[in-house]
TrEMBL record:
Molecular function terms from GO: polygalacturonase activity
Annotated protein name in UniProt: Glycoside hydrolase, family 28
Gene3D superfamilies according to UniProt: Single-stranded right-handed beta-helix, Pectin lyase-like
Organism for this UniProt entry: Cynara cardunculus var. scolymus
Family affiliation: Belongs to the glycosyl hydrolase 28 family.
Membrane-spanning ranges: 12-35
UniProtKB keywords: Glycosidase, Hydrolase, Membrane, Transmembrane, Transmembrane helix
Any Gene Ontology biological process: carbohydrate metabolic process
Amino acid sequence: MWRFHHRRWIHTLFSSYKTLFTLLWVFGFTSLFLWQRNIVDGFFIFRRPLPSRPLPHLRPFAFNLTDFGAVGDGVTINTKAFENAVFTISKLGKRGGGQLNIPAGKWLTAPFNLTSHMTLFLAEDAVIIGIDDEKYWPLMPPLPSYGYGREHPGPRYGSLIHGQNLKDIVITGHNGTINGQGQAWWKKYRQKLLNHTRGPLLQIMWSSDILISNITLRDSPFWTLHPYDCKNVTIRHMTILAPIFEAPNTDGIDPDSCEDMVIEDSYISVGDDAIAIKSGWDQYGIAYGRPSKNIVIRNLIVRSMVSSGISIGSEMSGGVSNVTIENILVWDSRRGVRIKTAAGRGAYVKDIKYRNVTFENVRVGIIIKTDYNEHPDMGFNREAFPVIRDIRYESIHGEGVRVAVRMQGSLEIPVRNVSFRDMSVGMRDKKKHIFQCSYVEGGVIGSIFPAPCVNLDLYDEQGLLVKKYGSANASDIDYDI
Ligand SMILES: *[C@@H]1O[C@H](CO)[C@@H](O)[C@H](O)[C@H]1NC(C)=O
Ligand SMILES: *[C@@H]1O[C@H](CO)[C@@H](O)[C@H](O)[C@H]1NC(C)=O
Ligand SMILES: *[C@@H]1O[C@H](CO)[C@@H](O)[C@H](O)[C@H]1NC(C)=O
Ligand SMILES: *[C@@H]1O[C@H](CO)[C@@H](O)[C@H](O)[C@H]1NC(C)=O
Ligand SMILES: *[C@@H]1O[C@H](CO)[C@@H](O)[C@H](O)[C@H]1NC(C)=O
Ligand SMILES: *[C@@H]1O[C@H](CO)[C@@H](O)[C@H](O)[C@H]1NC(C)=O
Ligand SMILES: *[C@@H]1O[C@H](CO)[C@@H](O)[C@H](O)[C@H]1NC(C)=O
Ligand SMILES: *[C@@H]1O[C@H](CO)[C@@H](O)[C@H](O)[C@H]1NC(C)=O
Ligand SMILES: *[C@@H]1O[C@H](CO)[C@@H](O)[C@H](O)[C@H]1NC(C)=O
Ligand SMILES: *[C@@H]1O[C@H](CO)[C@@H](O)[C@H](O)[C@H]1NC(C)=O
């Protein structure tokens, strides 16, 4: 019955052209309306928060920062919430520790400390923002291996997120951000309004078993990520950002007297060295005596318009050894890979392997500099000459480079046993002074471009000596290019 009636109704309706016409109008308008709504919807995709990705459970206990009264409005100061959360987690160490989830929002805070067996998890669109009024930043004693605040004598500002004497720390997330609001600090630094050394964004001292991954660090007041005298540190899938100009000393990662460390799969573009391996400064670093060693740095894209992509030093007075730097792209930078030191530093830089490093639009590619004369005070020992040796450059490529190599040793600090193999670097303009050396001893295996300086011996691919130059002390350094 129903079917019959239904059909008849449709039949009656369509029997009239007028009705059909009306129907077409209705259909047309409906389509137009739906189409428009889709556009508006598409537009809103960029504004409406998507359903947030579920956060993984990485510890037996998990907390939400809001459980501790935090408000993510970018204005409320949440230091107490962070402190209470860390205190709560500090009681759970024996039971596997705790995870502190930072949900989407802007979480303003003064500096706070981490605890052992803790995971800090930053959800997508979570931003921890460091308060930029130095009144809120506690002062800490200078690092023992530096003696000084580094910029000023005496104490220094602590770091926004700090940890010391800890074990088993994870800082990770769905690419949430820790933002140091460095602008205010850089300005005060330039205007000489600060009486103490600026604080790093993230500093972990005397600790072990550390994993930092999948987050973004930006606009640190000073060095961005500073692991100090730590063991077993992994840093991966990171984005580290600061303006490429006028963001003084915003190094990306500074492994300092650390051992067993991996930095990989990350992007760093900052206002100073992207990475600088250190181990203390002159007499203080020599006395502290902790080297940086067993470090692997790989699969990075780095950029530094002011300084260099990957540095070792200049503070290296505890020694630096056994470092592998591979699969690195340095782009639009002042310098590519640099070792820097000076008389007074003492110790050594040795057993350093560079492999598959590409320079794209870099002023000077490879640098060894032995007169980086910046000292904490006049108490350094001028006779404390660092030893620079056993350095290997392999598969070095690039284009748009002005000086491929500048290795400047000296009578007191000669550079020993460097080797080159498989290098081809496209030069930007000049054809002279593009491979500069002084007091450098070592060899080249096979042919490389540009042609090596006269200081180096030549070997064939089989490692047989082809030509012994024997003029290791020859000097051809030209800072004008
Ligand atoms: C944290 O709590 C807030 C407010 O109660 C909530 O909106 C958010 O979904 C929670 N996030 C997590 C990761 O539990
Ligand atoms: C973190 O702990 C260190 C060492 O106990 C202390 O000097 C520093 O003031 C603490 N920082 C904060 C913000 O509480
Ligand atoms: C993480 O966020 C940064 C800054 O917004 C962005 O540049 C980067 O591409 C993001 N990384 C991933 C894997 O989404
Ligand atoms: C720095 O020291 C001067 C002189 O003691 C003082 O007037 C000034 O307030 C201090 N500045 C800061 C930022 O502490
Ligand atoms: C290094 O730390 C990781 C955690 O980041 C841990 O899983 C691993 O067991 C540690 N390795 C050693 C040798 O202690
Ligand atoms: C971390 O980042 C990498 C590379 O972007 C990605 O493959 C991985 O899934 C991320 N891990 C988490 C937990 O989001
Ligand atoms: C050098 O470092 C690598 C990677 O950290 C490590 O596997 C190796 O054992 C170290 N070599 C020496 C001689 O310590
Ligand atoms: C060399 O490094 C680049 C990154 O600069 C990477 O894309 C490439 O896969 C690496 N090549 C090898 C053979 O590992
Ligand atoms: C020269 O350095 C290489 C590492 O680049 C090392 O294997 C070799 O033993 C060193 N040679 C001498 C004579 O020290
Ligand atoms: C070359 O320099 C070394 C030290 O760097 C020195 O021992 C040696 O005597 C010098 N040789 C010449 C010929 O000057």
